[in-house]
Write a structure and sequence with these properties.
five-stranded mixed sheet; seven-stranded mixed sheet; alpha/beta; homodimer; 14 helices; 41% helix
């Protein structure tokens, strides 16, 4: 493909994508593809000779699009918003098109320095003090793993430089809540702590971790000869956007000298709204935090921000320094390879830079406020309707709901819930994610796709009533 | 930005990128930016209001481009080729533009199924048997970490479900060579093994690991009450593209029941050439391997392929199953979140799919053969020139060279080497990476950027002679 063929094919693709975004509202939100259906349409072996770009584009339309659940659809209420602002999409295109790689500062200085600047912009936008340093990672799962590795090394006096966790005299323990994200447990297990050393701390009726229970667990472990190492709190849990009391967790963690990591993957975007910052009050007492601009804020996936108070510690745990990566500038610059797991890094800062500049902070705030208002309106409708209930506080844009017909409970209620949610999803008119809360299935309505306006929430509510209240 | 504004801005950006690729040969290869120079041109605070897209594009040209080292430049001979084939770039654009996310199969079935198909295409293209299952990860660093975590769990009988590494009765040991990539040591330390349990095995004069030394180290450790766990071999090391003897390593690993992971990040691309497959002969005896299509093969970064013989083991180590990610199809499909560290995944398969289809296997092979021939030609010139030597075998596209003026050795030789390499890099006409081999600096010439033809290698050789042979 010559430069001019790239130009022509690129224009075709841009048009196709602009058309896709313009018509996505007309597509069924959830893919209707059966398992194996996409695979069956693809050749089992690679082509020996070249294929025309037009054929590839045609297959994108014919085979791929019907196999997608459309996250950019205005009636996408599943999982969480994973918005790709058009400007951010273009920023990512610039990154891929330039094709430069950050191995070290020298391997493309602008890649590192734009990242330093925009992560600092985000720090200011979310009201964090200047004591925080940020870096872009792929996902919150990775950030939480990095956090627990750093906690492990701080608590063990850099055991990695000696016998590792295998030489632990006092086993290290980690604390979190049953409502924390599955990646916390995964990170603790992969970091080698072991399930026996992971404590699931009790939560209150609003699904926030109980600081007194944390304190008690830490004391119990210390008395038993274990070494409390880290606690992971969450600002905006996955199931219900519940809020762990960060200030109280920080007080407990501080008193015992253990690491506090805050998972604000979802709610972190809302911290650009001053009126929401009470949700992570006390955040300055944490050691590390993650927030994902690739969720609600609208920066094309993947763009997860990891902030730390002590970057030197991070670098000490993560650094490598082979000869082929050394340069004369190393003493004066940041080498971001030492700020996370992978060596190579994309120029991900461009998509964040493009998005913030093209939108401006005020427009980003305005959109998030629209979504918060929609969530409150929706929760009000649910609360007012007979047989329906809102099951958890609604501090953000996720509403946990259940419809309970008279006399239906237990397993039958679960079947009813999963049944109507499935009918909504199969209708193609909206997409919802069922989840378990307090041992029973309910339905999460996650509001905040870029294109989602009040009318889409209204339509969803009508559809939900229709599917849940119909007599089966 | 409306759909039509996106269309217009997208066309502008495509044109800008096509022009960039067309004129990149005229830019200085290595950035001439001083530390902090890019940062100083950017506002310290984010904009409150929106900025026109034209301003952002203008800054890309004015601030970013001068701060880049141009990896797509025909005279980029640094690090390793990190090629972005135009078709692959467009595949990545499609991924970002669609903005769908793979959390589970159901969250976008085509994302998973296209990935299954193209990783299997690559398996066939590289001559691997059908016993291998592949998945796309971000980088080889991550793949190697995943491999060592899986090795750890197999050797410890899934200690993560109990006391983790902290309850190890017999410390687990890991084996690699001094020529393996820095990510191997990093992965071993992060996985918790500890530096005391990482053995650096002796290599031969061609920088390949000595199987007898590996065998001896394993026996020594076992006799001392330790538990040998994993060996990491390399096909194409970073410094000199040296080849560990995979068949022999596999025999030793097999005899002792330990995990063999093969890092073919660089050389894996060459395995699409049947005449190169002797380089990893015995690969079927490995447990896992990584190869990076985002290097020489030309798929836009990041696209690292991780292949395993036993995917059930991988899933057992990596799986999570929160309620909000369950679906009725789970028994019939692959949920790739359980095949690596992060939960969320981009539709990275598109860029690999686009690249293979637009190129065809034969054209990919032809380009790699061009580069192999250029490397041999270049090595011949170096060997024939007085004062110059080729320091390591040249099985692939990297040539390790040194120029030694009469009577110059030791530290003075290092200064001479770093001096002329720096002059080449600062000239802007080519980019090279110095590295240490056998305790002395030398210069790696890594051939294989998409645009690199014989004429560029010839020009490099003239420039090297000019800068190294001049009297200072």
């Amino acid at each position: 493909m010559t430069h001019d063929e790239f130009r022509a094919a690129g224009h075709q693709l841009i048009d196709w994508l602009a058309d896709y975004r313009a018509r996505v509202a007309e597509l069924p939100v959830m893919a209707r593809t059966a398992p194996g259906e996409v695979k069956a349409q693809l050749p089992a072996a690679p082509p020996l000779g070249p294929e025309p770009f037009a054929d590839i584009l045609a297959d994108l339309e014919k085979i791929v699009v019907p196999g997608l659940s459309h996250w950019q659809h205005p009636s996408f209420f599943g999982y969480f918003p994973c918005n790709g602002l058009p400007a951010s999409v273009l920023g990512d295109f610039a990154s891929t098109g330039l094709g430069v790689l950050g191995l070290s500062w020298q391997s493309s200085p602008a890649l590192t320095e734009v990242e330093e600047v925009v992560t600092d912009w985000m720090r200011q936008m979310t009201g964090l003090s200047a004591a925080w340093s940020g870096v872009i990672q792929d996902t919150a799962s990775t950030c939480t793993l990095v956090a627990l590795l750093c906690a492990r090394e701080r608590a063990s006096g850099y055991s990695l430089s000696r016998g590792g966790l295998q030489a632990a005299e006092q086993p290290l323990t980690v604390y979190t809540s049953a409502h924390s994200h599955s990646s916390v447990e995964k990170a603790a297990l992969l970091a080698g702590f072991g399930r026996d050393n992971l404590r699931v701390i009790e939560h209150d009726s609003q699904y926030g971790m109980k600081p007194a229970a944390l304190e008690a667990a830490i004391r119990r472990d210390a008395a038993a000869g274990l070494k409390p190492c880290a606690v992971v709190g969450t600002t905006g849990t996955t199931t219900s956007t519940a809020l762990d009391p960060i200030a109280e967790l920080a007080a407990v963690a501080g008193a015992h000298g253990i690491w506090l990591h805050v998972d604000a993957a979802m709610a972190g975007s809302a911290m650009i709204l001053p009126e929401c910052r009470w949700m992570w009050q006390g955040i300055e007492g944490a050691d590390s935090l993650v927030l994902n601009p690739h969720k609600w804020l609208g920066v094309a996936f993947d763009c997860s921000l990891y902030y730390v108070r002590d970057p030197e510690h991070l670098v000490r745990v993560m650094s490598t320094n082979p000869s082929y990566l050394r340069s004369g500038s190393d003493a004066q610059v940041k080498n971001l390879r030492d700020w996370g797991l992978p060596l190579g890094r994309r120029f991900r800062a461009l998509k964040l830079w493009f998005a913030i500049r093209e939108q401006g902070v005020a427009a980003l705030q305005q959109r998030l406020r629209r979504d918060l208002a929609n969530a409150q309106w929706f929760a009000d409708q649910v609360r007012a309707a007979g047989g329906w209930s809102v099951l958890a506080p609604v501090p953000l844009q996720t509403v946990c709901v259940r419809h309970q017909p008279r006399g239906v409970d237990g397993e039958a209620l679960d079947q009813h819930t999963l049944g109507w949610a499935d009918r909504v999803n199969r209708s193609g008119q909206a997409y919802l994610t069922p989840a378990i809360l307090d041992g029973r299935w309910m339905v999460r309505v996650s509001i905040g796709a870029l294109a989602t306006e009040r009318e889409h929430v209204e339509a969803l509510w009508m559809l939900m009533r229709q599917e849940a209240e119909r007599s089966d």
